[in-house]
Fold this sequence. Notes:
- The chain is an alpha/beta fold.
- Helix content is about 40%, strand content about 20%.
- The protein has helices spanning about 15-30, 55-85, 100-110, 130-140, 165-175, 175-180, 200, 205-210, 230-240, 265-270; strands at about 5-10, 35-40, 90-95, 115, 140-145, 155-160, 185-190, 220-225, 245-250, 260, 275-280.
- Strands 1, 2, 3, 4, 5, 6, 7, 8, 9, 10 and 11 form an eleven-stranded mixed sheet that branches.
- The longest helix is centred in the first third of the chain and has 29 residues, at about 55-85.
- It is globular and about 65 Å long.
Amino acid sequence: xxxKTILAYLPNAESADRILDVAxxxxxxxNAHFIGLHVIPRVPLLYGVVAAEIPQSIIVHQEEKLAxxxxxxxxxxxxxxxxANVKSEWRCNNVQHDDITADVIGQSLCADLIxxxxxxxxxxxxxxxxxSRIVVETARPVLIVPHSxxxxxxxxxxxxxxxxxxxxxxxxxxxxxxxxxxxxxxxxAIDPKSRDGYDSIALGDEIAVCxxxxxxxxxxxxxxxxxxxxxxxxxxxxxxxxxxLLVMGCYGHSRLRETLFGGVTKxxxxxxxxxxxxxx
Length: 280
């Protein structure tokens, strides 16, 4: 089992190398077809009450700047892929609407793995929800790369967040290509809710046995969060374990609001210290 089609969304030159540093080794190790996706946004036409007074020349100039930046990004992407000896494809879409994420989602539906960067706030101080929307609306595994820190390896020391739910199971099996080559895999159950007849599932024993059939050797740890939030306990465990990949399932509505632990997603996506693979 391996990822044969990997798509990385490259929004700009500033984030490209951080994303490619993580995605290219994964594509190489899986002998995957690697797609670099860039979306050229529509130039905003509304600037308060003076929208009608904006000269067409300014709009054209901005469009030319965006197109030039996309061309430079393509050249850099091709060079990085050639250096890594990875089979690659460049896609660049020019959208005429405001919802860039919808275009990224449409391009990502047929990928085995999607790689995006953790998002910061936009220029207006509002949170950007691109990663969470991609997770929910593609139903594909999404690898989210932190926007700070350097990750020379990903998937050598894996922690699987587990609570016996179908979302957690989906994420675990989506991460098998990472775990088969990992040096360590830990199934981490925090405050598991045991049910009659299902204790081995809730506590992680059953998923460890199933993963063993995929040649994944996993240890199971059951712990209590105590007086701290579950999200903080999970982050602490990741640091203690020296984890370079967290695997977790999630569920939600049109936006990713809750995870298998219930409500820790926002905290993780804001404070993540290692790449996170999420599945919905």
